[in-house]
């Protein structure tokens, strides 16, 4: 009953923050189709290795809700997941898995309603932003008993920090990729300015001045292309705006222990002033205050933007068939004032189990997680189908592609994201209003960041106090 009460409380928080619900996933906001058919009912008995019928394992039925984590097979969202379940049922015929595909647009709200009405799925493949918030509300089952020592030691501590609460693991990490900028390389080739991009540098690092020179070249020589995309409509894709501004201003978003805002510095305020002025000068897409991350990425896929600030190897793979114009897209890190190493936030995808007070369902869901992540045949296949890199240090070279190889190099720039901070679910609701205020000229960049810091710090402090 205590857990049910917490779920009801979780809905109240969700309703208050309903506008943020599409945020921080690996997708660009363009989800798949909901309601894919469930897997076929499993046989009631298993067959042993000698061909005889073994004693039937206890049947159990679980539900898996999945965002479009995997690239569609034959253009059908959910078809690849059905293949996973067919293979899984050959190994575990006693476990029936009901698959339901949800979208990045409506899925978060649907999840919050399900949690509050005690009808949450058993398994979800998602990112830390939501999963860790659920864990802090005591809605998930810990996974430590299924994580082998060799797996734990093969994954960087930065990923475990995003997967744990109070020393317990609630997210089983699988795929990752650093968030970067996407660049229309073809535009620079056409205007004869490809050398303005740092593609010949092994780490591709570059300065803010070099970046601005590249933007100006597009503005001067490709009048039908807007140099840079930016957005401030909703919380979706907030990681792109956070990292872009933090690197321009040479700061962190939150301080080292995630206890307070750190981005409200004079240099970061000046960088936000530059963004606002660039929008007026048409260096940045018009109407940025009313555009969402998905809108900007759509403009990029139409060939109308030279740079988009919320990109990754995963998005590049997902977008390969969605381009509405022919061009080559490449990856670049955010520029820094002196060309030093940038601070990149990682996309992290993994699985979590809702504690629906049924040990048999939890055990069955753990078997599915282990199969998806570690099966000798399907583990690697599933990872590649996400379009992501492995979180495991020992698993590299999955793709014969220059941009993937660069993305692996850029993992060296990954830092811990602010999404693990106490109260971050509320903190992020203050971020885009601050950006809008600066873009619309209601405040200077520094004033907007100070106002954000005041509200965000109070939310973090309240969350820390409430968790004690």
UniProtKB/TrEMBL annotation:
Annotated stretches, region: Disordered: 33-52
Keywords (alphabetical) are: Cell membrane, Lipoprotein, Membrane, Palmitate, Signal
Q: Which Pfam families match?
A: SBP_bac_1
SUPFAM superfamilies xref list = Periplasmic binding protein-like II (SSF53850)
Q: Where are its TM segments located?
A: none
- Sequence ranges of Low complexity compositional bias: 35-52
Q: Which residues form the signal peptide?
A: 1-25
Source species, domain of life: Bacteria
| Protein name from the UniProt record | Extracellular solute-binding protein
Q: Which organism is it from?
A: Paenibacillus albicereus
């Amino acid at each position: 009953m205590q857990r049910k009460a917490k779920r009801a409380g979780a809905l109240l928080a969700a309703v208050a923050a309903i506008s943020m619900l599409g945020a921080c996933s690996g997708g660009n906001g363009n989800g798949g189709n909901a309601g894919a058919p469930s897997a076929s009912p499993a046989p009631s008995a298993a067959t042993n290795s000698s061909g005889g019928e073994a004693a039937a394992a206890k049947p159990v039925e679980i539900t898996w809700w999945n965002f479009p984590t995997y690239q569609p097979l034959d253009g059908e969202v959910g078809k690849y997941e059905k293949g996973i379940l067919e293979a899984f049922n050959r190994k575990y015929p006693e476990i029936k898995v009901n698959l339901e595909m949800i979208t990045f647009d409506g899925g978060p709200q649907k999840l919050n309603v399900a949690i509050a009405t005690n009808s949450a799925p058993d398994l979800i493949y998602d990112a830390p932003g939501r999963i860790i918030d659920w864990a802090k509300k005591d809605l998930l089952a810990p996974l430590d008993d299924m994580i082998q020592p060799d797996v734990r030691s093969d994954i960087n501590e930065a990923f475990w920090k995003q997967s744990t609460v109070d020393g317990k693991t609630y997210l089983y990490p699988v795929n990752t990729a650093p968030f970067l900028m996407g660049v229309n390389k073809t535009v620079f080739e056409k205007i004869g300015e490809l050398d303005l991009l740092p593609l010949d540098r092994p780490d591709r690092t570059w300065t803010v001045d070099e970046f601005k020179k590249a933007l100006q070249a597009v503005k001067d020589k490709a009048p039908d292309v807007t140099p840079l995309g930016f957005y401030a409509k909703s919380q979706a894709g907030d990681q792109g705006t956070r990292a872009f501004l933090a690197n321009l201003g040479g700061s962190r978003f939150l301080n080292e222990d995630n206890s307070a805002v750190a981005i409200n510095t004079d240099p970061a305020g000046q960088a936000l002033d530059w963004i606002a002025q660039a929008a007026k000068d048409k260096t940045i897409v018009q109407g940025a205050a009313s555009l969402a991350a998905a809108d900007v990425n759509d403009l990029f896929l139409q060939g109308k933007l030279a740079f988009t600030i919320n990109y990754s190897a995963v998005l590049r793979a997902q977008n390969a068939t969605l381009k509405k114009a022919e061009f080559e897209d490449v990856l670049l890190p955010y520029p820094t004032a002196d060309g030093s190493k940038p601070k990149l936030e990682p996309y992290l995808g993994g699985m979590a189990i809702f504690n629906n007070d049924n040990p048999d369902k939890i055990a069955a869901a753990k078997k599915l997680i282990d199969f998806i992540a570690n099966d000798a045949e399907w583990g690697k296949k599933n990872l590649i189908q996400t379009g992501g890199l492995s979180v495991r240090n020992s698993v590299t070279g999955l793709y014969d592609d220059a941009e993937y190889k660069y993305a692996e190099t850029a993992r060296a720039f990954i830092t811990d994201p602010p999404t693990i901070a106490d109260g971050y679910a509320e903190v992020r609701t203050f971020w885009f209003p601050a950006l809008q205020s600066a873009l619309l000229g209601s405040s200077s960049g520094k004033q907007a960041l100070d106002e954000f810091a005041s509200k965000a710090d109070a939310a973090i402090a309240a969350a820390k106090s409430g968790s004690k």
